[in-house]
Amino acid sequence: MSGFENLSERDRAVLRSIFDPTATIGDVVDDGDHFLDGEDTDLNTEAKSLCIRGVQLAEAGKLEEALELLNRSIDIAPERAPGYNDRAQLYRLLKTSVDTR
């Protein structure tokens, strides 16, 4: 008995995000989980869009530009958790790129 059978899907998603440091929250949340994006407001929609663009920039190697978008996302919707997670992943990438120079 693993002890995970009584966890909510939200708790399982959080644990997956903790134990898979390469994943973003969006990668580990099941389709039924909507707790991470908060309410459907114009600000949350804009923040989500900024995060998506920021992740795309990071994947293209434009880390500083990505950081600007992720910071803006958090500024306009500070209660939206995925922005913080995406920014934390980006900081990890930035540190790695500095360490390998």
UniProtKB/TrEMBL annotation:
Gene3D superfamilies: Tetratricopeptide repeat domain (1.25.40.10). The keyword Metal-binding does not apply. TPR repeats lie at residues 47-80. Keywords: TPR repeat. This is Tetratricopeptide repeat protein 36 isoform 1. GO terms for biological process: tyrosine metabolic process. Signal peptide: none annotated. It comes from Danaus plexippus plexippus. It comes from the Eukaryota.
